[in-house]
Design goal:
By secondary structure, this protein is mainly beta. 11% of the residues lie in helices and 45% in strands.
């Protein structure tokens, strides 16, 4: 009975609206997936699935010429007379007959170089032909896994929604999206409206396949979604590639097609390998069949990524347009080995759209009403690529168990397994979940809350949290308690908090907290506690300087309008100085001169405090502007994606008031401007500017001064990134008046070192930076740096080395800074 039901379901998927159907194979009888099938003199049609099956919709019987086109195979034309439907039409494709003529063989100049130069020269001409268009876009994503681990860090991984068989192999993700897209080249704008979206086994049906990110456009100089891989027809492609003309053949319209092999000059550079097909005289892309690796993309979990694209000739615009694309991937991450394919098709191009001033907005993605609620009949009529038997089975199985898996009985049984207490849980943490009621209780263990400093000695902490979801659109509340214990002080510092969020659109959130904490004197927290623990215990370098704060605070934050963010905090605190209580170390107490005091203003002042204990209130108001912010509108949420065309600006007003000593009260205005500029194959440039001014210069508490982010570590695991100085002592400079700092950095990636023989084989990136700081009543501080990024081995390249030169008050210093770029 199950087999009959499955066959019936499959027949529906193949027959509704489909009038011409069949299977495409090679000469050995093996099915060919993603073959383009369309009518002659058109640019859209349909595509075969992984089993080689296709469906082509025709309006009426008659005589037709049907084209079968696939990269690597000779295009096939079949003339048929159709009298009734459904009509069965199978096809067998022959491998393309690629040949080199005698002129090409005998020429001294590399003929492939001539073709590539012409393709680069003609990029604007070719893309200008479809500078404006609308189209329909269909995507399908499929992810499989083999031998999936049953547990991950002691936690059961379940059966991935019911997609695994007895060997823990099978489909773990299957999704489809159908949308309408609009594109404008100058200025570049894009808009997508999703008509239908579906995810196997899920109710919300929100697939995250975006058309704008899916099109891997080799006419661009670099492919940003692949971490800036260099296109083989980039303006500086000859720095990265050698080329070989494998041969030529003629397409269905007797256009001469050149098959070019890509030969990277450096194996692990940001490049593709494989073949591209270029049309003679038009110098346009005809097809792409390329691969890249984790080492080339600098994404270690990637084994391989394969991209194929097919283009078709449009008589209307006398140009070649993309009609289909596939992305095959093979990953490996901590024992999980997923692989799969994303398939995309483009159809119904309109190259003369009537765009208006309101066509393109900052909303680049939206969903039609009920887009995630389309039924099976709707999808069977809409789907341009037929489902495979495996995909039909996955939809059927997961849809049949979806209702069961939402039941209280089932969810309670799953929770019962997941809620079992493990022997490592007292250290790592533990969660007790009630999935049916959407609530949980968590215990946060001491593993990541343990460290060392000279004030507290060894310290550790635990926490408890209760979380309750109130709906499916992001409304929830949470409450908890944390406690930190200092072994040298023999003191516990507790805190309790409450938080509530109302939705996932503007994300309004309320947070309230009361308790005792030990913040750094620099509120920007330049010193990572792990860095300080290691440097203290191993080298007697206790850079962290802290004080005690007993406080009650309440914070509210929200995106009040697209790209405009607001947060406000009101706090009342008692602030108290702390002193060293231990000189414990794993090394000689004399190394590096021993520990310094906890007074950032006097490193030898072990019994002196940088401020007097006091109570004070604070009003902290912050606004951030992300100009031209683009965003994605999902049915129940909004995802902001920024806009790299403009910098983002933050403005802050901080008022300290209510202190018994009026000198401690202050009013401070600060602003931050930061920007990331993508320079394509020439790397990326970024800058961060910060300035501040006190309304009145007063003798305020030291933690209220404006301070830069310094660094005194040669091997920091984590730094404050571009906003930190490399050689500046942590508390050397500060201001209670006027202050400004600037950080500029350009990562050339392979643009410079890639052109130097021998050195270019290492695939290192040249990085240059400049930093400066000025303040009232002090000399300027400057730094210049040059470094190498992308250091490492194979695809594991997370290291960076900088040589930094600084100057302050006529004194110059220099040194090396070695860091992990993965965390910075």
């Amino acid at each position: 009975m199950k087999k009959i039901t499955l066959i019936f379901f499959l027949c529906i998927a193949f027959s509704l609206k489909a009038q011409v159907k069949g299977t495409v194979t090679d000469q050995k009888g093996d099915p060919l997936s993603f073959v383009s099938v369309y009518l002659n003199n058109t640019i859209t049609g349909t595509t075969t699935n992984e089993e080689g099956n296709y469906l082509l919709n025709l309006k009426k019987p008659g005589k037709y010429t049907i084209i079968f086109q696939f990269i690597g195979f000779t295009t096939l034309k079949k003339e048929v007379t159709i009298t009734s439907f459904p009509f069965q039409l199978n096809a067998v494709l022959k491998e393309e007959n690629v040949q080199l003529n005698e002129i090409v063989i005998s020429t001294k100049d590399n003929p492939a170089n001539r073709i590539i130069r012409n393709a680069i020269k003609s990029k604007d001409k070719n893309t200008e032909k479809y500078a404006n268009y609308t189209a329909k876009f269909y995507s399908r994503g499929l992810t499989r896994i083999k031998d999936a681990p049953e547990k991950f860090f002691g936690q059961s991984m379940g059966d991935f929604g019911g997609g695994l068989d007895s060997t823990r192999s099978g489909i773990i993700y299957l999704s489809e999206t159908f949308s309408k897209i609009s594109f404008q080249k100058k200025p570049k704008k894009f808009k997508e409206k999703i008509v239908a979206s579906k995810v196997s086994g899920q109710d919300n049906g929100v697939s995250f396949n975006r058309a704008e990110e899916s099109n891997l456009d080799l006419y661009e100089n670099s492919i940003e979604i692949f971490n800036g891989l260099v296109s083989p027809i980039s303006t500086n492609a000859f720095t990265y590639y050698n080329y070989k003309l494998v041969g030529t053949f003629y397409d269905k319209n007797q256009k001469l097609i050149n098959k070019i092999q890509l030969l990277p000059k450096r194996k692990n550079d940001r490049v593709f390998e494989g073949f591209i097909y270029i049309v003679e005289d038009d110098w346009a892309l005809y097809g792409i069949d390329v691969t890249t690796t984790g080492a080339q993309t600098n994404i270690p979990i990637v084994n391989t990524l394969k991209v194929t694209q097919g283009f078709n000739y449009s008589e209307e615009i006398k140009g070649w347009v993309l009609i289909n694309q596939t992305l095959d991937f093979d990953l490996n991450f901590l024992g999980f080995k997923p692989s799969g394919k994303f398939s995309y098709t483009y159809s119904d191009y309109n190259f003369k759209p009537n765009f208006t001033a309101t066509t393109f907005t900052n909303e680049v993605l939206s969903f039609e009403e009920s887009a995630t609620k389309k039924d099976t009949l709707f999808w069977n009529k809409l789907r341009p690529i037929p489902l495979t038997l495996e995909e039909v089975t996955d939809y059927k199985v997961k849809d049949s168990i979806k209702v069961l898996r939402k039941s209280k009985k089932y969810l309670d049984s799953i929770d019962a397994k997941g809620n079992k207490f493990g022997w490592l849980d007292p250290i790592t943490g533990y969660s007790f979940n009630n999935t049916f009621e959407d609530k949980s209780f968590s215990y946060n263990g001491p593993l990541l809350r343990t460290g060392f400093n000279t004030v507290q000695g060894f310290y550790t902490g635990v926490g408890f949290n209760y979380f309750k979801s109130l709906n499916d659109t992001g409304k929830w509340w949470s409450a908890g308690v944390n406690a930190n214990y200092s072994f040298s002080e023999k003191k516990i510092r507790p805190s309790v908090y409450f938080s509530k969020k109302w939705n996932n659109i503007s994300r309004p959130r309320l947070f309230a907290k009361i308790g005792i904490t030990t913040p750094q004197f620099n509120e920007r927290n330049p010193i990572a506690r792990l860095n300080n623990s290691l440097s203290s215990l191993l080298s007697n370098l206790n850079y962290l300087k802290i004080y005690e704060k007993q406080a009650a605070e309440i914070t509210y934050s929200q995106e009040i309008k697209n790209g405009i963010y607001f947060s406000g905090t009101l706090e009342y605190a008692n602030r108290k100085p702390l002193f060293n209580t231990t000189d414990f170390s794993w090394t000689s107490k004399e190394e590096n001169g021993g520990y310094t005091s906890n007074n950032p203003l006097n490193r030898s002042g072990f019994n002196t405090a940088p401020f007097a204990e006091h109570k004070i209130a604070t009003l902290d108001l912050r606004t951030r502007f992300v100009f031209g912010q683009k965003f994605l509108s999902y049915p129940d949420s909004k995802q902001n994606i920024g806009n790299n065309k403009y910098p983002s600006v933050s403005i802050r007003y901080r008022k300290r008031f209510g202190a018994s000593n009026s000198e401690l009260n202050s009013d401070l205005f600060t602003t931050n401007i930061n920007h990331f500029v993508n320079a394509g194959n020439y790397g990326n440039f970024r800058y961060n500017l910060r300035a501040g001014i006190f309304l009145k210069k007063k003798n305020i508490a030291f933690m209220d001064y404006l301070q830069p982010n310094g660094n005194e570590l040669t091997y920091p695991l984590k730094t404050a990134g571009i906003s930190s100085f490399g050689l500046l002592d942590y508390y050397k400079l500060y201001s209670n008046d006027k202050y400004a700092e600037a950080h500029l950095e350009h990562n050339f990636r392979g643009a410079i070192l890639g052109k130097i023989p021998l050195l270019n084989k290492l695939n290192f990136y040249l990085v240059a930076g400049s930093k400066a700081m000025v303040m009232e009543d002090a000399k300027p501080y400057t730094e210049y740096s040059v470094g190498l990024d992308n250091l490492g081995f194979g695809k594991w390249r997370f290291l960076r080395l900088d040589y930094v030169m600084s100057n302050y008050n006529g004194v110059s210093e220099n040194g090396f800074l070695f860091r992990f770029s993965l965390f910075n």
